[in-house]
Amino acid sequence: MWLQAALAFLIHDNFKTIEIEYIYPSSWRAKCGIKNGRGIKRETLKEADIRFVKDNYGIDVNDDIADAIAIGHSQINESKDEGMIIWD
């Protein structure tokens, strides 16, 4: 949280043209097809994140790396939907 705030202040103060967008877990999980919401425990979500990465990328990772990969996956797919080509 502290690092995120420090980066936000740094960008705001020094790079006026960069727009900061916060991506919430419920949003990126939904884009990855991971069911989330009320009543679903954090541990269940972490397991689902790991399973998502295993199923889609064939790699075994811990929950933090799975989160990072799933966040990237959700944003790349969102950009492709808007007509932007990122990579295949």
What does this structure look like?
- With 88 residues, the protein is mainly α.
- The protein has one domain.
- 62% of the residues lie in helices and 0% in strands.
- The C terminus is likely disordered.
Topology:
Layout: H1 2-14, H2 25-31, H3 42-57, H4 63-81
Could you list some keywords that capture this structure?
mainly alpha, 88 residues
Q: What is the β-strand count?
A: 0
The residue fraction in helices comes out at 55-70%
Number of domains: 1
- Strand-pairing-aware structural class: mainly alpha
* Estimated radius of gyration: 15 Å
Shape: elongated
What string gives the helices and strands in order? HHHH
| Poorly predicted regions | 84-88
Mean pLDDT: 88
The end-to-end span amounts to 32 Å
Given the structure, what is the number of helices? 4
Tell me what portion of residues adopts beta-strand conformation: under 5%
The major β-sheet equals: none
